Amino acid sequence: MRRLFIIVAITMATATSAFAQMKTEPAAQAAENTTIELVPGMKYKVLKNIYDYKDYEPSIYDSRSPGGMGVASFFIPGLGQIISGEIGRGLAWVGGHLGAYVVTGIGASLMNSAEYYDAEDMEKTGTIVFLAGFASMLTVDICSIVDAVRVAKVRNMYERDLYKKMYSLDLHPSVNHILTPTGSQPTAGFTLALNF
Asked: What is the pLDDT of residues 99-118, one digit of tens each?
């Protein structure tokens, strides 16, 4: 009987210290503290109210790399958002970039036409339109990169919590009594619980 109590005490102390050392993820806390239920297929505009991208910590289980999504949006603004599953958001960034590109082209066209027609006013207007379009393109590019990184971080945290909620595996120490011909005998062991 004394050995049984020692085994149970050691098992419980080990389990307690293991649970105490586990780090509670801020994303999981945020998901538990809100009244919004996590369901598959949620969009970023809802998820950004649940998760803060600043709380993101990389994990080997993440399905997308925030840096990779930023690089994708560097080459094609909005591509990182599209890869992350936010197609409408990504297409909006693509449209914004194309709009700025068109404005830049109009400005360049006005500057070239001014040389042909020898008109100073047209050249000044063309320069202003070209610079405004170019500044807009740069702004859209930079904002798209930042947004793609944030979207990837938030979606990674959401997927972690969603899968954690869908599947959980717990191991708990247990003490049971077994009936033997001589009476009841306590036995120590572990209980494995799989929830899905």
From this structure: 999 999 999 998 888 777 77
* Counted domains in the chain: 1
pLDDT of 147-190, one tens digit each? 999 999 999 999 888 877 666 667 778 788 788 888 888 888 87
Side chain identity at residue 62, one-letter code = D
Q: What angle do CA 138, 154, 152 make, to 5 degrees?
A: 50
Residue whose C-alpha is closest to residue 62's, from 166, 162, 196: 162
| Rounded Cα distance, 74 and 36, in Å | 33
What tokens does 99 get?
A: 């709009």
> Which two three-digit tokens encode residue 120?
């100073």
Please give the residue range of the domain that contains residue 90. 2-195
| Strands annotated E in 47-182 | 168-180
DSSP state of 65: -
